[in-house]
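Late entry, written up from scratch paper. The run itself happened at the end of the previous shift, but nothing got recorded in the book at the time, so transcribing now.
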Amino acid sequence: MDAPDLDTDTARFLLDQVLSEYADKAPKAMQVLEDGFDDATAVLSLPERYRQRLRTTNGVERLNEEIRRRERVIRIFPNRTSAMRLLGALLMEMDEKWTTGHRYLTMDDYWAWRRTQTQITRQPA
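Output as recorded:
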C-alpha cells in the first residue's frame, strides 16, 4: 500500500499530534522522534520523482548485502588492511556501475528543480 503524498507542513502537524498524545507516556521516545524529525522528513523537500527512490534504504541495504556476499567467500581476513582493500574495490566497482551503467537517478531534473528553488527564494517578497 502506497503512503499518501505528504509535505513537510502535514508531517509537522502529524508529529505535533503524536507528541501531544504520547508526551506523558513516553517522553524519551517523543524527544527522539522530535530530534530526528528534520532528518526523517528531509526527502519531502525533494521533487516527487526523487522521493520515490530515496524514501527507502534499499540502495544501502543492497550495498551491504553485496559486501556480506563477498565477505562470505573470503571468510577470514588476514588483517584489517585486506578487509579495507576488499571494501575499497567493491565501492570502486559500484561507483563505476552507478556512473556508467543504468541510472537509478538522473540528476538533470534535480539540478533544474534546484535552480527554480533558488530563484524562488531570491525573489523579493
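The chain has two domains: 1-45, 57-125.
(Scratch paper discarded after transcription.)
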